[in-house]
Automatic annotation (TrEMBL):
GO cellular component: M band
PROSITE patterns: FN3
Protein species of origin: Poeciliopsis prolifica (blackstripe livebearer)
SUPFAM superfamilies named among the record's database cross-references: Fibronectin type III, Immunoglobulin
CDD domains: FN3
Protein name in the entry: TITIN
Domain of life: Eukaryota
Lineage start: Eukaryota, Metazoa, Chordata, Craniata, Vertebrata
Domain Fibronectin type-III: 45-138, 144-239
GO molecular function: structural constituent of muscle
Keywords: Immunoglobulin domain, Repeat
Pfam families: fn3
Gene: TITIN
Length: 250
């Protein structure tokens, strides 16, 4: 025999490795080792697939390249997701070359699973799945600010000031909402049309002679927190001052 051929059809990357060829004749036996590398689709990315929640609508994914690239460079990754209540997967990103990705547009309160596959020139590899996780904020709404204090009362306005909440809930305070309630009414209504960034606000458009209570709420990325304690009733009227001393009689 001058040569021989062994053909292994439908090989995959698990068929690669060290093969030993034994040759025998009347004079004895000899062996030859052959290292075989099968070119194939890549293996799954090296886990775990880590999910870090940023907010109720966003999360970060991190993973590692496959331990077996199939004999060809990894060109990109495919990311898919599904809700645990469903069976179908939806595409998140069809072509990402990095090993991390920020996912957006999640639905608060939904439970998700992500999966990622590596791609080389021979095709799409096996998927690596994450553990299920619920999309929710890793922080909570802020605690209540201090009770607002009134000053500079006029016939149609008053200045309110307050202290920041003791706890921001783990997320920066985005602003405040100041509310008022007429003594003759039951409903709380907003004093400010836009979110307040300061801890001081002049509330205008009040009815002279009426008495009002005020309260303030803080807001962060998780939502609006609990209201402060209500202020005492403040009567809206022009300030009056004691008369000055008489002038010297003539």
């Amino acid at each position: 025999i001058t040569h021989t051929t062994l053909t292994a059809r439908n090989s995959t990357r698990v068929d690669g490795g060290r093969y030993v060829l034994s040759l025998s004749n009347s004079g004895g036996t000899t062996t030859i080792s052959v290292n075989v590398k099968v070119l194939d689709r890549p293996g799954p990315p090296d886990g775990p697939l880590k999910v870090k929640v940023i907010s109720a609508e966003k999360c970060n994914l991190n993973w590692n390249p496959p331990l077996n690239d199939g004999g060809a460079s990894i060109t990109h990754y495919i990311i898919e997701k599904r809700e645990t209540s469903r069976v179908t997967w939806t595409e998140v990103e069809p072509h990402i070359e990095a090993i991390s990705y920020k996912v957006t547009k999640l639905v608060c309160g939904k439970e998700y699973i992500f999966r990622i596959a590596a791609v080389n020139k021979y095709g799409v590899g096996d998927f690596l799945e994450s553990e299920p996780f619920v999309s929710q904020n890793p922080f909570k709404p802020p605690s209540a600010p201090s009770t607002p204090v009134a000053s500079a009362v006029t016939g149609d306005s008053v200045v309110l000031t307050w202290e920041r909440p003791e706890s921001d809930g783990g997320s920066e305070i985005d602003g405040y909402i100041l509310e008022k309630r007429d003594k003759d009414g039951v409903r709380w209504t907003k004093c400010n049309k836009r979110r307040l960034n300061d801890v001081r606000f002049r509330c205008t458009g009040l009815a002279e002679g009426h008495s009002y209570q005020f309260r303030v709420l803080a807001e962060n990325a998780a939502g609006v927190g609990a209201p402060s304690e209500s202020s005492e009733y403040i009567k809206i009227c022009e300030a009056t001052y004691p008369p000055g001393p008489p002038s010297n009689p003539k």
